[in-house]
Design goal:
The chain has 18 helices and 7 strands. The protein folds into 2 domains: 13-210, Glycerol-3-phosphate (1)-acyltransferase (3-Layer(aba) Sandwich); 215-397, no CATH class. Helix 13 (263-286) packs parallel to helix 16 (326-335). A 7-stranded mixed β-sheet has the order 1-7-6-2-5-3-4, with helices on both faces. The N and C termini lie far apart (80 Å). It is elongated and about 85 Å long. It is an alpha/beta fold.
Length: 399
């Protein structure tokens, strides 16, 4: 390979905005589908990136990983991505793709990008030419090496892991963590076999990191994503509104931190269960039933009774911020013959706002802490201790 020629430190500014928007789009998409992590950085200036290819999601992973100052463009199969107008628009606008022929003339298509490389842009290529099953590597073609030599820029290997789980070949979108590991530039005398070995090694390291996860967190994810996940959360919230001593927000802290994308499902299930349980509890209390209310005190009941006597159904708005159990308000409202419709409406406002706020908070926290998933059990231990201490404090305050 020839001596590397001086290149711009970054791509021309006119390309930055489009590249930044693509990076944000795919980073958010991958984060919401299970998580995204990157290790390593590209060298300054233009370069050719080569990566393994097992899924259409590989393009999204690379665009999310590469800085906007490199203004990356992706080599895409002309016979597939540019065979129809709608695919051409998707590839060009969402991925910055350019056509590469696979049936002859592909090297000429690549060499046409040499000036872009010298101007500081990054060209991303999949040397295998097509998607392979995860862990399998085909023959690496020479086109990427020829382009890097012609433009006088580095050739940088990248390993991608997890995309075949998120979007399998001929499969549907699933949840999963994607990791991208960027390696050091290859030596000038590198061969296609050297490039293949470097990408394979980076892929193996990224895959090993991707699998470092808590077994308990995976089981929680499996349960909440099952057909019974929302039902179990709903039943917990119903029980808490009647007698169960543990608030449903405990599920938010347990489930949403582990599976951030379940936030909407969990939040809606909690609110629906709270309202259903509250309405049932209201009717039972109005009929004279006395349900068990563990971890409550006479002072709690007196406070709720006073507020309901003064404000009626509006009194439930105090519940989320005073630490009094919802079931205490439900029981006292039933005894006071508060109209059920008014109670449901006001409960939806009060409980819904708090649940939505807490769920959003834990969803953001879960997204930010995805790389620490293997310590999920430790998080639960710490959280359980903090919750127990807080609950004891509330009971002491209202004793």
């Amino acid at each position: 390979m020839t001596t590397l020629a001086p290149a711009r430190a970054s791509a021309p500014p006119r390309h930055w905005l489009a590249s930044a928007l693509r990076r944000l789009l795919w980073w958010v998409t991958l984060t919401l589908t299970g998580g995204f992590q990157r290790r390593g950085r590209l060298p300054r200036g233009g370069c050719v990136v080569i990566a393994n290819h097992s899924s259409h999601a590989d393009t999204a992973a690379l665009l999310a990983a590469l800085d906007a100052r490199h203004a990356p463009v992706i080599g895409a199969a002309a016979d597939y991505w540019f065979a129809s107008p709608w695919r051409r628009r998707i590839c060009s606008r969402l991925a910055g793709g350019f056509p590469v022929r696979r049936d002859g003339g592909g090297v000429d298509d690549l060499l046409a990008m040499a000036d872009e490389l010298r101007a500081g842009r990054t060209v991303v290529l999949f040397p295998e030419g097509t998607r392979r099953a995860d862990g399998e590597f085909g023959t690496f073609h020479r086109g990427a090496l020829v382009l890097a030599e012609e433009a006088g820029v580095p050739l940088v290997p990248v390993g991608i892991a997890g995309t075949d789980k998120v979007l399998p070949k001929h499969g549907r979108l699933r949840s999963g963590v994607v990791r991208v590991r960027i390696g050091a530039p290859l030596p000038a005398a590198a061969t296609p076999e050297d490039a293949r070995a470097s990408v394979a090694a980076l892929h193996a390291r990224a895959e090993a990191e991707r699998k470092r996860d808590s077994g308990l967190r995976r089981r929680v994810s499996s349960v909440i994503n099952s057909r019974w996940g929302a039902v179990l959360v709903f039943l917990w919230a119903v029980a808490e509104a009647l007698s169960w001593p543990l608030i449903p927000e405990l599920l938010v802290a347990t489930i949403v931190i582990a599976v951030p994308r379940s936030a909407v499902k969990v939040s809606l299930s909690i609110v629906a269960g709270t309202l259903a349980g509250g309405l049932l509890g209201l009717q039972l209390a109005a009929a004279g039933a006395q349900l068990p209310a563990p971890l409550t005190t006479d002072r709690m009941r007196a406070q709720a009774r006073h507020e309901i006597a003064v404000e009626g159904a509006d009194a439930v708005r105090h519940q989320p911020w005073k630490g009094l159990p919802y079931k205490v308000y439900v029981a006292e409202a039933g005894k006071a013959d508060v109209p059920p419709v008014d109670w449901v409406v006001e409960s939806a406002k009060a409980r819904g706002s708090r649940t939505a706020m807490l769920t959003a908070l834990f969803a953001v926290l879960g997204l930010l802490l995805q790389r620490f998933r293997r310590w999920y059990v430790g998080y639960l231990v710490v959280f359980a201790g903090v919750f127990a201490w807080s609950l004891a404090g509330v009971i002491r305050t209202w004793s």
